[in-house]
Amino acid sequence: MNQNILHKENSDPRQKLFLISNDCIGILSCLFIGILLSYAVIFKYVHFGTQDWDLAFFTQALWNLKQGSLDVSLVGVNFLGDHAYLISFLILPVFALLPHPLTLEIVKILAFVSSGFLFYKMSKRDLGWLSAFIFMVLYLTFPPNVFGILYDFNPETLSPVFLLGMYYSFKTKRFLPFMVWAVLTMLVKENMSLVVIAFGLYAFFPKTENKIRWGVFPLILGSLWFVLTVFFMIPYFRGTEVHPFVVRYQHLGQTVPEIFHSVIFNPQQTFSMIFDARNIKFIGELFGPFLIPALLSGQILFFMSPILLQHLLSASAPEHSIMFHYAVTMAPFIFLATVETLGKVSKYPTVFKTALFTLSLLSIFNFFSHAQDFKRDITVHHDYLTAYRWSLVKAIPQGAGVVATFSFLPELSRRKELFSFHKIFSVFFQQKEKIHKTPLYSSQSFLLPRKVSYALIDFKDRWILHDLKNNPEIFYTRVQDFFREPWRVEKAAGDTVLFKKDPFQGTPLIERFPILSSDIGPWANILIDQTIRLVLYQVENPIRKNKNELLIPITFLWQAVQKTSHHYVVVFQLKKDNQILLQYQHMIGYGVYPTGVWNPGDYQKEHFWLPLPHMEKGSYSLEIQCRNLSTGAFVEIEKEGHLEMDHSLNLATIEIPKN
Q1: Strand order of the sheet with strand 418-420?
Q2: What are 493's strand-pairing partners?
Q3: 386-506 topology per CATH
Q4: Hey, where are the domains in the chain?
Q5: pLDDT, tens digit, for every residue of 438-484?
Q6: What percentage of the chain's residues is helix, strand, coil (to nearest 5)?
Q7: In CATH terms, are 386-506 and 511-656 the same topology?
Q8: Does the chain have fewer CB atoms within 10 Å around its N or its C terminus?
Q9: What is the pLDDT of residues 561-610, one digit of tens each?
Q10: What is the fold of 511-656?
Q11: Nearest by Cα to 155 from 286, 31, 59, 45
């Protein structure tokens, strides 16, 4: 738009009313998308869909800050020794009023949709309200942004509104607001100071008035903040000589100056790393359909270049993916550059409309190409077990020390003593050669404090299954050592078990015997795949805890017939009138002592509580099948010398009581 049009819009009352009504549409659209995103993250939280520990980390950090402490037991470091997340101190008053993990998620979403509306207001100056509105929707539904919002809370997801405010102030030559936005941006994380430096450097090249103000001041401010946080504050609070995240760039140097020197003075190596296959794929996913129009206004991409370079040179796989929070900091500049390019061609209506239509169509395709990934992120634990999981969590006394698998960490984070179960077995916390390759390294292997009295473990946690498969030797050693402590089952639902440390009472999950007592009762004599024997089993009557919880206690006594490297799983089936109403898969030995680690002649007794969904009163048949986890095939079950039909063994007839 030219200045005359802008003047006319500002002077005509009818035009003002038109613009205000359009802005209302923009605000309502932002709120609508914000509500959808809020529903998604709340749904994910309620169904224990968290697969990482960021949300729990920041919740516990703010919880402890509220108590006057900087320690975060979850990761075992001082909060300011991880990153310079000083923006957390500005969030703290809101969290103090509403001390809940979802408070952080809602703050994140409010900041994100605010950045969308700010982007709309900025774009409207160049493209008009309709095109700006379209781009706002494309921005708010841009897959890297959506992934960033669906992922755990991280202060970096607050940065877009600050970055856009800084860019707008820079472009409109409003220095004081620019400096305010710059300071807020740097409070997000120490690397954000590099963006402020980029603004300062940029000011020296175009025909910018007052280069001292716009060039020198941001350059000095960003540089001082970077040096202060990276070289002094974070190492001081961490108790290390260098920034802990330097380990992600050890292929370039052991210190920050060495890394910068290697990047600048070894350009051939730098370029070969930037344009390797992994980064080419990442750049394609990051820019999506906006790659070409954004590159045509590459001067705007210069502002995000330090952050992009940080990810392209990192050895950390998540930094090369759009499925985490990292890309959110770069998306604003991708869209600003695209709008700049379209603004240049807006004087050619046909070209402009074609470009806008093409980008919109490609963006829709791009969004739906990731639809299954979005759904998986939100509904990873969407099943009938949600009520059981909440019951287990609520059984833990407030304030008690807990170790738990990832999905439970956020809800348990409002306490002083919280630890992640994966630190018990992960090579990055247990193996000396690997410990120093993680930013969360310490001088020794992780040891769980003895004062921790509760453990809430989902044995189907993806981290457990990953290490069980890929690092079996250290996994079994560490997890079996853990269960040599007097952990007794407090409550259980399937493969999710709440333990309490009690040496005197309670049921152990697994008991192992070299020989059997002669008074165990009649043998069932059930041979499975000629490899393991089900010596006996006991199925008890269903126990109704409340209207939402119905459990069938089952005890198995197994014997290893011969050595095998395969793990076997039991598939429970509940049938009525030959119709399968429930299937539940359980790894024999819970992954602690699976069949692949048994020795011939070993006996193993395990307790299992089969959780049932809502079922009508009546008689049901409980059957099991066994499957080889390595091959995926169902295996033969032989009872008293006869093969069972359909590889299925009838355990008992179950009477379901009235709800």
Answers
A1: 418-420, 402-404, 454-458, 496-501, 487-493
A2: 496
A3: Rossmann fold (3.40.50)
A4: 3-46+83-378, 386-506, 511-656
A5: 666 565 678 888 889 999 999 999 899 888 888 888 888 899 989 98
A6: 55, 15, 30
A7: no
A8: C
A9: 899 889 999 999 999 888 898 999 999 999 899 998 898 888 999 999 99
A10: Immunoglobulin-like (2.60.40)
A11: 59
